[in-house]
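The data are quoted verbatim for reference:
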Amino acid sequence: MRAIVGVPRQAGRASGADSYATRSYRHTQTTEQPVEKLTIVGDQIIIAGFGQRGLGQRFNDVVKCAFEENLFKRHHIEVGRELCRRGIADFESTKAPADEYGALVGFTVNNLPYLCVFPSDDFQPEFRDANMWYCSVGSGQAITDPFLAFMREIFWTGGPPTVQDGTFTVTWTLDHAVAVNPGGINAPVRIAVLERFSGGLVARMLDDNDLKEHRQNIDQAKDRLRTYAATQQPGAADTPDIPKPKS
């Protein structure tokens, strides 16, 4: 299984993934091993891929070549369209079967961040915006999508979160997926962000120290929920008395 999550914002964006890949032989799973599912290109682009690793390596090269050719100076819709065309052309050059690879690509155009989804079923680009600002992909999507919807309903009803809060959301979502999945999604959680630095947007990978504060905030949020649950129990100190019916 795989879990990959992306959250964009005008000030930047956060993407994360678990760190394990499952190997198989003749449709039978054989082993799991840690892998890096996030790639940073030119300190400006974040690629989070899922599916066939060989196709992922090739798509990473497609993006790198496009970056060196200054594709990312064009309109963001054209960037998504061209990455789609080049990626499909590369896959078809070796008759790669469909549905074998998909990706999230975060990049900047004119100092603004964009998050583009390339689904594994057709690889057609779809951008996330203020109306639908989060996404998750991979075989763990059945876990991560509902949790992201829950996070949006509780915390971010007014629109996309800040980069800091988006990182909090991605961290909690992936930690939850690691904790409850039936197999194949494992720690360590890896997160990369596009954030403002010296007036520009820069991509970087977060380390454990960067995530420590977010996990502390997650623990505090869980404690608040536990405290609320305790107040709803019969006999709780702050539960108002139920009035007795008049005789």
The two ends are 62 Å apart (CA to CA). The chain has five helices and twelve strands. Residues 95 and 187 are 34 Å apart (CA to CA). The mean pLDDT is 86.
